[in-house]
Amino acid sequence: MFGAASSQAQQVQSSTPAAATATNQGNGGTTASPAANNSVDNSDPVSRFLADKGLLPNTKPVVELAQQVRDKASDMASELVLSAMNFLGVPYRRGGTSEQSGFDCSGFTRHVFENSVGLILPRRASEQANSPDLIPIQKSELKPGDLVFFNTLRHTFSHVGIYIGDDKFIHSPRAGGQVRVEDMRQAYWQQRFDGARRAPVVTARQPTPPQNN
User: Fold this and answer.
1) Using CB atoms within 10 A as the burial measure, which of 61, 108, 138, 139 is most buried?
2) What 8-state DSSP symbol labels residue 148?
3) Is the model's pLDDT at 69 over the cut of 90?
């Protein structure tokens, strides 16, 4: 079930000597780890962290995206996505399920869902895709907190990540990589997109408390 990443992925320039490729525990892909540039908001801890890790070519849009999630997503979805972003930079480890040990892709999504919204997902990406607790949705319906699946090892649902909005998702790539954000509009991910799943508990908005007169 485990395989090497495809060499067809689009590569993005990196400030580090080598670009990291992406696959997973039976869940793979190939992409590069972009680098942070000088337009970093040093007053924002998330921005500084992303810059230090060299995870994105421009950290400011990700900081703005995090704020959009806070403003527009349901309370549960916002908590889940921001929880996932706390693990940016954690190294990939095949079979890994924790920040201390590292994550593979399904270990990452399972950990985030369990510890942020209390939903325990199955262990493997394909099992998560077929979970009765999740609802299949169309790509056009994606909202922050949804799971996105990709065919990266020539079989369906071999890789999984968490959609964070603005056509981006966060995931744990292959050995040598680390948890990072990717753009689903890249040709590699567009060609391998397999579907998406939604947990009703994540997208349900918290009831607005009645106002006292």
Assistant:
1) 108
2) E
3) no
Neighbours of 44 (CB within 10 A): 18
d(CA 181, CA 32): 11
| Residue 180 annotated as catalytic | no
pTM attached to this predicted model: 0.68
The residue whose two tokens read 């992406």 is 22
Residue of 105, 119, 160, 179 marked active site: 105
pLDDT tens, residue by residue, 151-195:
998 899 999 999 999 999 999 988 789 999 999 999 999 999 999
Q: Reply yes or no on whether the pLDDT at 117 is more than 60.
A: yes
User: DSSP string covering 176-202, please?
Assistant: T-BSEEEETTSHHHHHHEEEEEE-HHH
159 among known catalytic residues: yes
Please confirm, yes or no, whether 155 is among the known catalytic residues: no
Q: Which of 110, 111, 124, 171 is catalytic?
A: 171
Integer-rounded Cα Rg, in Å, for the chain is: 16
Catalytic residue among 110, 143, 159, 198: 159
